[in-house]
Design brief:
It contains 5 helices and 5 strands. By secondary structure, it is an alpha/beta fold.
Length: 137
Amino acid sequence: MKGRPLFLLVDDDPDDIMLLRDAVQFFDNNIQFAEAVNGRKAINYLYDAKSQDRLPDLIVLDINMPVLNGREVIAMINKDEQLKQIPLVVFSTSSYTGDLMYCKEHAVELIVKPFGMKLLMDIASGLVVKYAGNTKY
């Protein structure tokens, strides 16, 4: 039996992590969260989680981060047969055409970070429905 859904939030801005986590929990407080402040920490977390057979149900990843950026993380994930099975959503302020094309080429959903609470709540409810299986919203 599968446990509670687990989302890995990867962003160098702790406020962005907190806002998204709180918005998702508003719709489903059963979801657990792991957090990483850069791409290297995210990859380390994923390899550790893989060894413990507790991979996340979703990875929400920023593009612009120190140490390893989102593109580098996506490339590393795609080289691993198990990790590339995890749904991945890029959640970034970037609307740079190169980032949009990169995500499209790698079949990764890109959501531009909203500038308002209503849009953030809409995004959070969509993540809950799509990746945690909670169809209530």
